[in-house]
Amino acid sequence: MSEQPDGYEIPLYRALCEEILMGGLQRKVALLYWTIVAAVVIGLRQIWFLSIAVPLYLFLLHHTKKDNQIWDVGRKALLGRQTLKP
Question: For position 86, what pLDDT does the model report?
Answer without folding.
Answer: 66
